[in-house]
Structures are given as C-alpha cells and as structure tokens.
Design a protein that fits this description.
Blueprint: H1 23-39, E1 43-46, E2 54-58, H2 64-72, E3 80-84, H3 85-88, H4 92-102, E4 104-107, H5 113-118, H6 121-125, E5 129-132, H7 150-158, E6 162-168, H8 170-173, E7 185-189, H9 199-215, H10 222-231, H11 236-249, H12 255-265, H13 270-293, H14 305-318, H15 326-329, H16 333-342, H17 347-375, H18 383-404
Parallel strand pairs: 1-7, 2-5, 2-6, 3-4, 3-5
Antiparallel strand pairs: 6-7
Amino acid sequence: MGGGGGGPLGPGATPPPAVSPSRLGAALRRALWWVVLTVTGGVRRHGQLPPRGCVVVANHSSHADTAALLAALDARHRPAIGAAADYWFASPWRRRVCRVLAAGFPVRRTGGGMDDLLSMVEGLRAGRAVVLFPEGTRGADGAVGAFHRGALVLAERAGVPVVPVGIAGTDRLLPKHGRLRSSLVRVRIGDPLPPSATPEEARAAVAALHARTAAEPLRDAPVRRRVAAVAASRWGLPLAFAWACAEALSWPLMPELLLGVACVAVPRAALGLSVAALAGSLAGGLLALQLANTGLLLPAPLTTDRMRAEVRQELTVESASAVRHQPWNGIPFKVYATEAGRADVPAADWLAQSAQARGSRTLTVGAAFAALGLLLRRFRRHYGTYLVLLGAGFAAGLSLIVAGWS
C-alpha cells in the first residue's frame, strides 16, 4: 500500500473519518498475516514499539510490506495503515478489503492528504500506531526514496514519537509488478525519533535499518545447504526416481524418507521431487510385478511372511485394487508388487490402481514436507537436528510396523 506523503490540499475535500479502533480486530489481522507470511517463507521481527502511540515510518517496495508490518507489530497498538486513496479506495471491494484486512485509512495523493493524516491525531494520543510509507509509492530498485513531510507533521501535531522501521524480503516475496514467491520477511524496529525530527532524519534512519536488515546473513545449517544444492540440481529428480524405483524392487527405505529430507531443505523443489518419486515407484512396481510373474523374486528386507499372506488374501478378493490398502497398512509397496506378479494380476490394471494409490500418498507427503519446510524456514539453522529427529522417528515407526506384522 502506498500513501502517507502528505500532499497538497485539494479543493472541497472532506477528510474521511479515522478508522474505528479494535484490539480484537488487530489481533485477528496480526494472526492472519502471521500465518500467511509463515506459509510463504516466514516472518521475523527485531525490536519493539514504544508503549504509547507512535507514527511508524517504513521503506516501501512491495504490497507485502503492509502484511509484514501487520504481522510484526503488537496488536495492543491497533496499527492503522495509511493507504493511497486513489488506488485502495477507488472501488467498493478494494475499500472493504483494505479496511477489513489492513485497518487501512485513505490518504489522498492528489489533494487533501494532510487533512487525512491529521484525522488520526486522536487515535495516536489514545495509544494507536499509525503506519505510513512516506515515500508515497513503492520503489522498484530497493533504494529508499525521499520522504514526504506528512508523517512528521502528524507526529508533531499529536506529540508522539516517530518510529523508523526497516523491512527486507518483501521485494522478493511480492515484487512490484511481479508474482508471489517464497521468501523470509524480516522487520527491524528502530529507536524512536522525537516528533521534531525532519524527513531527512527519518529517511536516514529507515534506510540504515533497511540496509542492515537486508545485509544480515540468514543463519543456516551447512548440511541443509548441501542437501538443497543436490535436491535443486539436475541430479535431484533422477535421485528421487532411482530411490523410489529401488524401494519398489528391494531397497528397504521408502521414498517418503527422501522427501522428508529434501522437501524440507528446499520446499520449492517438492512438487518435482514428489512426481519423480511417484514415477520411480510406479516403474519399479511394474518391473517387480513382471519379474515375479516370471518366477524371479528379489530380496525384500524388513518384510514378513504375515505381510505377504495378508497381501495375497487381499489380491484374491480385490485383484489390482487391493493396492489401495498399501498407503495405510504399513506393508511395503514391493510386497504388493511382487505378490501381484505371482497372482498374475494384469500389468495395465496394476499400473492404473497403483498410480492412484501411490500418487495420493506420495504427493500428499511431499506437499506436507514442503509446508513444514516453509513453516520451519526461520529455524533452518537447526536442520541437522531435524534430520536426527526424522531418522529416529522413521526408525521407530519402521520397527513398530515390522513388529506389528511379525
């Protein structure tokens, strides 16, 4: 959202009423945008607002800046966002969206803007935080532009401090005229400036905070970087395919383990890795069926006679559709593929049914691990610990399954 420049007064313009304060509404908005930004890469805040009302001034490079501030600022300040009246209040639906989701109030850029800002004086004196983007519009190159004076006039009139804020990551999350993509957003709240601060002083403080925040290295685990590099490289898809194919033949470690390792490390590669794993699983299962049909049985570690007996009984009753039980009963896919070959199940029927059963499981697991990777992005320096927990959980689960079918 753009606004807060404090442009020249327009003829015959009546300032709109201030936004009705609601701490519950502020809390709900904060929760909403925290969830949204967490899913899209995470949000992190450094610093905090002073206890009383204040005018927040921040750099502006993306519409996502508003979401970042609403997610980061305390609900007790009931933040109100100054929004460009000629854009966000130009139609009824935009007006409703802006007011409900962002507690926005209109600031005219073509006349009357100062009156719009001064309508928030009483809210500031009552402890609210009024958020303005003094550049007046989104920048395109990451540089902080010149500040208009409106935000400083408002702070001086209300007798509240000016709080500079630097935002980093939103220009990648939602670039100007670009599409949404994953990015960690960081919000750094600076020390309050006196109401008498000049636009140049406020701009310098915001620019310093933005530069510091953007340049701050993200703490990461070396093992995560290495896993991500392999998963996102030209070897990632062949590896997922080969792993799943081998598991459908004889390999004891299911492809979901690989997805748990790789998709959390690099969530954007999750769909490709999941599809490759599904293709490998189907190819390996079809090959296992054909080999068993000719009498060639490959080793099947960590499987039991009871598993095979159960699968034979299911195949006798349901034929190829028996594989629909596989995602939920813990019996490895290779047992189903081998027993289907021994039962002379038609290859075409088997491929169709296993594609549906394996597809629902593999794609769902891949999406779940990708979502987990996004949720845990701010903690990626602990990726090594996550791998230990994942391995321990997998080993424990596998032991329970084998013991249960023994």
